């Protein structure tokens, strides 16, 4: 990856982030461990994730501009996130990245960047669910 540009620019900016979230959430909804945590109307979640990932990958700070400091771990506390669910989330993202057809090296970089936060959001052990 060209080190002078952000990951956001490297993956193709707004258009790619849009395709990614639209490919990702149907997989999340269909996943037996993840689907039940999400509302039936997934559109507002897709929109927030679009704003967040834009910012997270180094694009404009769309999420913070609308919702303030992300505090993503805190925002996830109402939901029982087990290690298994973190892996399931990352697996849906891996499949979405493939579906969008991103360059393989970039797919690996994106997954790696998301893997830290996903595990950091774990707040429940499997025995508690
Ligand atoms: C580890 C597994 C994860 C699970 C099970 C999970 C689950 C959820 C759930 C249930 C919601 C709330 C949906 C709603 O009712 O509005 C949510 C919101 C959200 N998640 Fe996750 N999530 C995970 C990881 C991540 C990661 C790694 C990121 C990004 C780095 C992320 C970003 C977001 C964003 C931006 C929102 C919207 C927050 C808001 O409402 O302000 N999530 N997530």
Automatic annotation (TrEMBL):
Superkingdom per UniProt: Bacteria
Pfam family, one: Bac_globin
GO molecular function (one): metal ion binding
Annotated keywords: Heme, Iron, Metal-binding, Transport
Residues that hold heme according to the record: 119
Family stated for the protein in its record: Belongs to the truncated hemoglobin family. Group II subfamily.
Record's protein name: Hemoglobin
Organism: Paenibacillus prosopidis
